[in-house]
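Incident log entry.

Two folding requests arrived from the same account within the same minute. Monitoring flagged them as a possible duplicate submission, but the sequences differ. Recording both here for audit purposes.

Request one:
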Amino acid sequence: MLLQRWLLDELADGTVAVTYRRWKKPNVRAGTQMRTAIGVVSVVSMTLIDPSEIPEEDAHRGRFASADDLRSALDGFGDGSTYRIELAYAGEDPRIALRTDDDLDDATFEHLRTRLARMDARSPHGPWTQAVLRAIEAQPGRRAPDLAAEFGRETQPFKTDVRKLKELGLTESLRIGYQLSPRGHALLDRLDA
């Protein structure tokens, strides 16, 4: 579920935010946690609602002039059911602490090495993890399409692979491109030792 920046800013300030979505099938439920630009956001509640019952107050909180304007915006998403969703800030993205942890003891190093080996083994295009980490190390901030082309790959699948490295705390996304995290540098240092 994509959230507008202004809504994320309100959540970061501790405000419980309300948003509306129209879906044929909901893609979140109460208790879902999502990583966003501000950290982790939690879906507090999700209620099926008749659009005619959208309160004016919720429309104004959502930066609409009126509930009618909000309903018109929802109509732009076609058929489906309308949901009122309450969101709350749930804390910092745990990957931030992970990527700054560059003290790799033997068990952590082996865990990461094993995870990378598994990713390489499952990959339809062969081993890629260390080569991509080294390319990001050598070219921080390089555009994802350019890095993907360097490996003879399409951009979107390449970005999906880099996200897997990010989940392990090894890379960080920049406004453009990526860079290795301290943890990623520490891993490559151990692999080179």
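Request two (distinct sequence, not a duplicate):
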Amino acid sequence: MLHTHSKTHPATVDWLMEGLGKPEIDAILSMATIRRFQAKEVIFRSGELAKHLYLLRERSVKFYRISHAGIEVVLGWLMPGDVFGLGSLPAPPLNYLGTAEALDDCEAYVWDAARIQRLYISYPRLAANCLRISLHYVAQFAERHITLASCSVEERLARTLTALGDQVGQATPGGVEVTVKNEQLASLADINVFTASRLLNEFQRRGAVKKSRGKVLIECPEKLLTEMP
């Protein structure tokens, strides 16, 4: 679920509700509960029965799994408009594929599985849109696998960092600031944290980024993408 598109990425409420009229959209949203989650609160865990579908309204959520070795593998960052908990759509529901944890205090529309199943029967276009979002996520994972097989570790980290800058970065006078830990960045780029730290130091030496605790300031993205061997 690592997004490589802009902040107006396709997995938004517009895409979820694409092709539906305002009365239909209002009816679907009225059937949801609006829930707030505190920073670091686990919304659901990998392997649990998917009892709810979520549409993130604000802030961000980390989606990850724990490897057999006990290492946290970040599958992606969910942003406002992203839909997750898609295992709740089939009857009976599937299990959640990963753990969702609030990165900040956040808010989401939440439908229980029985209710969303009734809604997509009543609104076939909603079901088609959910399928489209599911395929979008599958395509993202396929692209990530291709990148893992065909790109150098330096290129993977550069692409991941620029994608995060586009997706969640905050514009500052000095560049685009991304709040991310080395461990998270390494996991998203499918490299180990020692390699990520070494490469970030190299990017800083080039003048591409400036590191600080828990943050990376992208000063010159061109130097991330054009100076790789």
